[in-house]
């Protein structure tokens, strides 16, 4: 029910033209207000707190849809932030919340949140500072954009005397949730890129037939589809737990596998589109640019593969197949 409702809103309001407008500095207040007023920011909030009380598994298709529509707003991060603040006495602030999975103090005392997703737009940030969970007002921070065309990612610097609210010691959950969200967004955006590529290959005629009929093109499409399918399965794994926060090992596998697929999927899509594949007018770049950015957000495949490898080596008596099968323990019926 929620997925269908959000899909309709995104189809109507999150058009490629709207995404480009936001990237060029226009506000997206109508889209944000539609999602906020519809109560969609409270999907993971318990019912006793007037939320929808959805499970992680139920919210996964929604996060997938955000990636598939290149949603240029921190909606998934705001949903997760409210879940992370579940045990806090402070109510979530009004406005756009984003997540900073890793923050640190610089030598001069400033607090730095590097490459924060939607840092250029966020009103508030839920920050992991060495395990401490902090809520910070982004209006007090200096924002330094990434410099990538159209990106809403930014590094934020808060002064030493910035007034943040300490919410607890579950700061490490911020990075887990943020990484899982990025894995879902990658899977969704790659599905869209595959759909666009398939449609183009079926429509583009060369030498008297659609290029999708050529065996060499079919081979590339097959490999691309395999990468997309594997990424979706891995991303879904991160949300398969009954817990309130994605499982650490499942998230590591999800982020590693989806990030690993990005170079091949994006390169294949652009290659099959040919000369128009590099143009700004083609909607494909709205997704492939984000895929490259999300690939390294909260750590690339190198970081997360290292964590998976350490977990496997910590169980020398367990084979790789058994290790993967038991990433998420069986839940009681």
List the helices and strands and how they pair.
Layout: H1 2-13, H2 16-23, H3 29-37, H4 56-68, H5 75-84, E1 97-100, E2 104-105, E3 111-116, E4 124-129, E5 132-137, E6 142-145, E7 154-158, E8 165-168, H6 172-203, E9 205-206, E10 209-210, H7 215-238, H8 248-273, H9 284-296, H10 301-313, H11 320-325
Helix pairs in contact: 1-3, 1-4, 4-6, 5-6, 6-7, 6-8, 6-9, 7-8, 8-9, 8-10
Could you characterize what this model shows?
This protein has 11 helices and 10 strands. It has 333 residues and is α+β, with helices and mostly antiparallel strands. It folds into 2 domains: 2-170, Orthogonal Bundle (Butyryl-Coa Dehydrogenase, subunit A, domain 1), CATH 1.10.540; 173-325, Butyryl-CoA Dehydrogenase, subunit A, domain 3, CATH 1.20.140.10. The strands form 3 sheets. It has a 4-stranded mixed β-sheet with strand order 1-4-5-8. β9 (205-206) and β10 (209-210) form a beta hairpin. α7 packs antiparallel against α8 (248-273) and α8 (248-273) packs antiparallel against α10 (301-313). The longest helix is centred in the middle third of the chain and has 32 residues, at 172-203.
CATH superfamily of the largest domain: Acyl-CoA dehydrogenase/oxidase, N-terminal domain
> How would you state the average pLDDT, rounded?
93
Q: Over all CA atoms, what is the radius of gyration?
A: 20 Å
How many domain regions?
2
Strand order of the largest sheet: 1-4-5-8
Here the CATH topology of the largest domain equals Butyryl-Coa Dehydrogenase, subunit A, domain 1
Distance from first to last alpha carbon: 23 Å
Keywords: FAD, Flavoprotein, Oxidoreductase
Protein name: Acyl-CoA dehydrogenase, C-terminal domain
Family: Belongs to the acyl-CoA dehydrogenase family.
Organism: Pseudomonas moorei
């Amino acid at each position: 029910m929620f997925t269908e409702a959000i899909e309709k809103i995104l189809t109507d309001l999150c058009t490629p033209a709207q995404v480009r407008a936001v990237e060029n500095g226009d506000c997206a207040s109508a889209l944000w207000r539609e999602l906020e007023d519809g109560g969609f920011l409270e999907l993971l909030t318990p019912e006793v707190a007037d939320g929808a009380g959805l499970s992680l598994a139920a919210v996964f298709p929604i996060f997938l849809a955000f990636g598939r529509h290149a949603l240029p707003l921190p909606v998934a991060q705001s949903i997760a932030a409210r879940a992370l603040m579940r045990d806090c006495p402070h109510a979530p602030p009004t406005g756009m919340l984003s997540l900073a999975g890793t923050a640190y103090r610089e030598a001069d005392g400033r607090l730095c949140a590097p490459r924060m997703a939607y840092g250029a737009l966020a009103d508030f940030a839920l920050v992991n500072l060495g395990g401490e969970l902090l809520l910070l007002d982004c209006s007090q921070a200096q924002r330094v954009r990434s410099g990538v065309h159209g990106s809403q990612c930014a590094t934020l610097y808060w002064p030493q005397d910035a007034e943040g609210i300490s919410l607890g010691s579950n700061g490490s959950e911020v990075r887990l949730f943020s990484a899982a969200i990025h894995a879902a967004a990658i899977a969704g955006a790659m599905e869209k890129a595959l759909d666009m590529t398939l449609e183009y290959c079926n429509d583009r005629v060369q030498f008297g037939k659609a290029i999708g009929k050529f065996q060499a093109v079919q081979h590339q499409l097959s490999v691309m589809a395999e990468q997309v399918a594997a990424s979706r399965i891995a991303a879904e794994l991160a949300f398969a737990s009954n817990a309130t926060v994605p499982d650490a090992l499942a998230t590591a596998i999800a982020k590693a596998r989806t990030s690993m697929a990005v170079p091949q999927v994006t390169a294949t899509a652009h290659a099959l589109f040919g000369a128009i594949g590099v143009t700004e007018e083609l909607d494909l770049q709205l997704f492939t640019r984000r895929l490259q950015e999300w690939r390294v957000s909260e750590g690339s495949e190198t970081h997360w593969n290292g964590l998976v490898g350490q977990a496997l080596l910590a169980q020398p008596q367990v084979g790789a197949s058994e290790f993967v099968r038991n990433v998420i323990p069986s839940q009681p019926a």
